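worker-03 picked up job from queue 'complexes'. Input manifest follows; two sequence lines, order preserved.
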Amino acid sequence: MSSQHRRPSARSTRIIALTASLAVAGLLAGCSGGTGEVNSDYGFATAEQVEDSTITIWADASRQPAVEAFEAAHPEVKVDLVVDDGSANGSATFQTKIALADQAGDGWPDVVFSTQINDASWASKETNGVQAFAAPLNKGFIDDEFLSGFTAGALDPVTIDDTVYGLRNDLAPVLFWYNKALLDEFGYEVPATWEDYIALSDKLAAEHPGYFLGSVGDTFLGTYVYYWAGAAPIFTLDGDKFGSDLSDPNSQRVTEMLDHMVANGTLIQDSVFSAEFVAKADKFVGSPGPVWFSGALFQNPDSVNAQAGQWGGSDPLYWEGDDKVTGNVGGGMWYASSHSKNLDAVKTFLEFITTDKATAGTGGLPAYQAAADTWLADQSSSGFYDGDFESAVGAAASSVWDGWGYPNFSVETAYAKVIIPGLAAGKTIEDLAAEWQTEMENEAKVAGYTVG
Amino acid sequence: MSTNTQLAAGALAGRQPTGAGRSRRPDRAQSRIGITFVSGYTLFLLVFGILPTFYAVYLAFTKANAFVGIDNFVKVFNDFRFLPALAHVGLYVAVWVVSLILLVVLLALIVHSVRARWLSSTVRFIYYIPGALAGASSVMLWLFVLDPTVSPVSFLLHALGNQTLVDTVQLDQLPVVLAIIAFWTGAGGWIVIIYGALNNISTDVMEAARIDGAGPLATAWYIQIPLLRKWIAYMAILSLAAGTQLFVEPRVLSQATRGVVPLDYSVNQLAFLFAFKQNDFNGSAAISLLLLVVALLLSVFFVFRGGLFERD
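worker-03 finished. Artifact:
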């Protein structure tokens, strides 16, 4: 160390001065960046392209095999995969790291995978003078013909003012899952409507207490699986205007249903990923739930671990006399960086990852129609699920209610903050509705939306 | 830590010859070594402490590089999450610092009065172990303790009316839960330090007290605690600084409870959300600056009440 030198004090002073001036220069340089001229071939200001340069991909561990499959299929493209958490559970890793890169004017990846579907709300916008991170895809970068191959509505969450900012990895529409073995044993029918579902809950509570029809203990269940699928306008977006209406008739119907079923014991408050839930899994009679319940619960040895033919999937529930709509729980997105130096490679990657029949959907229902057809055919030929699983998933995928909004914050945070602890304390959603709505509206205001 | 270096310096000074002619050179050599020792720290303090502070001051009073006065502060104050976060942290710091001071002093006095050498050193070692775990990993450990379904002390949690993890981390008991976690991780180190301070009290004084008929309680109250005043103030200052910056614990709990402990629980978390969720580095800097001012004011209070800068 510096103690070996003759005059450490002078030396260290110099080091300090040098470091200080470097740091100040760095701080000042941090404000550079800004937007250049729009490249008419792409529809956004592109960075200077460097042929054959390595593309950096941020994705979570579940996507890693698919990225590796791409590397095997396209050895000419050099890939640097950075494994992160895919921004799961609202960790906002994607946004946090891009904010830092924006501030530094350097360090952007070329492609990002996110498990959240609302990232386009911020990634499509210029922040503090730095060009929007997400590259517009349908302004010349990617062919319209390719984009039209996605399942109808799959790109809605990333489409803002007719500009597409990302590609959907997988779809996660809500259908109705039922325990065929238990329904047969008790002599019950599979419910087709929400009204049937409520009636079933009363019968089940009276005749077989302890058995249950779902959970409200996860934030995605209460919000997406019940309110979204029940066509309740508690989370809507019109331009910059956010709306949450818990007094709308549909919202009230869902609230009453949930309160009623929590009260009669057929809706539990345990997270479906908790040990308590697994312990009760043999009393699980059925529930609306996303397609990915298949892998996460029913075919998971550490969860429900169903036998072939024990469980089945049927068409989503709907309100009698209303449109047949459903909700959606996630489904990842791929984004291309507008700062990429190798857009050709990025394009090759995006097209492969969303359409390749072996890897598209990365385990879930692929968003690209042709790949989805293959996936569904595989699922139904395995015969694991009772009923017409293929048509149920197809019906769900094409009927996601389009009234739900994708603002730059999640409906789940307010539900987690207000409803889950409230229910645990013995209150009803009806009691908490006003507080919940205020919380969502406050979050909207903070995120820069007007509330109305 | 600075107190340790003071002690070391004091010990060195005591050993020095006092002759005027001989003392000049070692003095210079010593100051040179002293500067060398602090230079590394000073460098990092400048780069990661002082400069960022100035950058934060700059950011807090500007918006898009234009001076905006106190606009950022007004915005932060009007944010619906700010006052609740302030209340959460205030409550937590109050619970934690008070319990830390009382229990650490009490435990140190008890350990110090243990006559058996092996017992005393074993107990000190055990106290110190949790402190070796980093903040986040100790919270991971506590997640198991706090979840009544898997906790080794589930009977206790059940007796207090907690059936699930969501019950345990209810907002009204969260400050106490966080204080217990912080105490468990942080107190051991402080017990060892206070123990060292107790060893520093001259045996003459203790003996005199004993001859005058003071029992262990009277000795602790009239001799040891007053002589520990500076150390207690020092502990309070560092704990305040750490406590007001509460971040890791609620964030990990938030992930574990899937958001029941909100992401905007503490003031520091709010600063994080401002910067990285809202891309408002200016608002974030304003919050940081407010935290700095509060921590500074409280520290000044303890410095003067504790006589930290007085010479013996």
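worker-03 released lock.
The mean pLDDT of chain B is 84.
The interface with chain A takes residues 32-33, 35-36, 39-40, 42-43, 46-47, 51, 55, 64-65, 79-81, 149-150, 164, 166-167, 170-171, 255, 257-260, 262-263, 275-279, 281 of chain B (CB under 8 Å).
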